[in-house]
């Protein structure tokens, strides 16, 4: 059976700049997959390619086995997407948003929408434009969850939320996933502690490619910082910590980020005369910083290859010929439409004014809502 979210050799350039470079991704049914990476790594562009908001220069992206650039209305209502900068029209109330969205999703859950509105203290009848940015963000997420999607894609879902609301959002996401049997989630975020609490799997994106991926549980069980202190003035030449992904030597101290599957793995080092071996657990944030921190042996996260819970690889890929594509917004199956520009710093032309997506029509087609003052398209 094909995984709900897949990408093979996915490539996208903007004005000669490669944003996504030969990316491969597979998210199995029921996974909560956290996509992490530095600014400009290609996270938002990857999500937009998956959603059919951008057309790839090479490779393919599929949701539920379909190319979303060509997906039917029936398929689109099975997926919800909340863009990083997307928000509902200011003039809509939350009640308006829910009533509008309910027309397009057969599995729309009005009870869940009301429940989340109460939990997050979202006013039901106040125009959304009068709410804080954080509350507008919650309204977008509420609409995405209430559609009971099979696939949920979230770009920086907790951006702009205070710590209390963030934690409640995570609880609500977990609760919604429990109620929705087999829902698959792909989210990108810079809040690594949230990924650690919510995600089952994580992928590290760098320069448009997945350079590491694996189960969070495996990482929590095995990834360690190992510090080895030798007597004398320096670390003996050629000596390494078994399972090293990244190592650094400073005087008599050897520090390594390593996969330690069993404490006996370090017995050889502990047996050396006068040597002290200290082992520390790592949070996801610490591992992320270590991964991209300059220095060490051979650059960020250098090491002997696939030796951690993350499968580590790096292939050069083929740079795409520049092929600009200005098509944005083609009826995304979500309550919230696309941001006008990719958050990775490069992107398309401004998006259409409307940010409510109708899975049955294209943006600004007849019947789609328009911004005040915008003239409807002319048809013969």
List the topology elements.
Elements: E1 5-14, E2 17-27, E3 32-37, H1 43-50, E4 58-63, H2 73-76, E5 79-82, H3 94-102, H4 110-119, H5 133-146, E6 151-155, H6 163-179, E7 184-188, H7 192-198, E8 201-206, E9 209-215, H8 216-222, E10 223-229, E11 244-250, E12 253-259, H9 267-270, E13 276-281, H10 284-292, E14 311-312
Parallel strand pairs: 3-7, 3-8, 5-6, 6-7
Antiparallel strand pairs: 1-2, 1-4, 8-9, 9-14, 10-12, 10-13, 11-12
Helix pairs in contact: 4-5
At a glance:
This protein has 380 residues and is an alpha/beta fold.
Written description of the protein model:
The protein is α/β, with parallel strands linked by helices and 380 residues long. It has ten helices and 14 strands. The strands form three sheets. It has a seven-stranded mixed sheet, with helices on both faces. The two termini are 45 Å apart. 46% of the residues are buried.
Sheet-strand content, in percent, reads 15-25%
Strand order of the largest sheet: 5-6-7-3-8-9-14
Radius of gyration: 23 Å
Terminal CA distance reads 45 Å
**Strand pairing plus helix content: what structural class?**
alpha/beta
Mean pLDDT: 77
Number of strands: 14
Shape: elongated
Low-confidence stretches: 296-380
Major sheet description:
7 strands, mixed
- DSSP helical segment count: 10
Write the element-wise H/E pattern from the N-terminal end onward.
Answer: EEEHEHEHHHEHEHEEHEEEHEHE
Helix content: 10-25%
Provide the descriptors you would attach to this structure in a database record:
single chain, 380 residues, alpha/beta, 7-stranded mixed β-sheet, 10 helices, disordered C terminus
């Amino acid at each position: 059976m094909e995984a709900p979210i897949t990408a093979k050799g996915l490539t996208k350039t903007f004005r000669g700049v490669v944003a996504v470079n030969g990316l491969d991704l597979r998210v199995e049914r029921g996974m909560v997959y956290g996509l992490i990476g530095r600014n400009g790594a290609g996270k938002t562009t990857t999500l937009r390619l998956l959603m059919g908001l951008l057309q790839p220069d090479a490779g393919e992206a599929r949701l539920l086995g379909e190319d979303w650039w060509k997906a039917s209305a029936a398929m689109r209502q099975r997926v919800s997407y909340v863009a990083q900068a997307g928000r509902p029209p200011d003039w809509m109330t939350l009640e308006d948003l829910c009533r509008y969205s309910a027309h397009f999703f057969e599995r729309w859950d009005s009870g869940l929408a009301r429940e989340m509105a109460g939990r997050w203290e979202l006013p039901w009848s106040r125009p959304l434009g009068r709410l804080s940015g954080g509350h507008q963000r919650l309204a977008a997420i509420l609409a995405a969850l209430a559609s009971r999607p099979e696939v949920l894609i979230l770009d920086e879902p907790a951006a702009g939320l205070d710590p209390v609301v963030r934690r409640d959002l995570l609880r609500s996401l977990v609760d919604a996933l429990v109620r929705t049997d087999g829902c698959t989630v792909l989210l990108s975020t810079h809040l690594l502690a949230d990924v650690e609490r919510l995600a089952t799997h994580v992928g590290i994106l760098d320069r448009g490619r997945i350079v590491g991926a694996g189960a969070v549980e495996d990482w929590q069980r095995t990834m360690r910082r190992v510090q080895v202190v030798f007597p004398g003035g320096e670390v003996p030449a050629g000596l390494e910590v078994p399972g090293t992904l990244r190592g650094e030597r400073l005087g008599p101290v050897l520090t390594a980020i390593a996969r330690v599957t069993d404490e006996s793995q370090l017995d050889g080092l502990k047996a050396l005369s006068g040597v002290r071996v200290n082992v520390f657990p790592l949070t996801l944030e610490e591992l992320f910083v270590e991964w991209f921190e300059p220095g060490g042996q051979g650059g960020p996260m250098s090491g002997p290859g696939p030796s951690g819970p993350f499968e580590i690889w790096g292939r050069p890929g083929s740079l795409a010929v520049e092929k600009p594509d200005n098509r944005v917004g083609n009826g995304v199956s979500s309550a919230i439409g696309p941001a006008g520009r990719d958050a990775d710093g490069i992107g398309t032309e401004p998006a259409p004014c409307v940010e409510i997506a109708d899975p049955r029509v294209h943006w600004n087609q007849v019947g789609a809502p328009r911004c005040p003052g915008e003239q409807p398209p002319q048809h013969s």
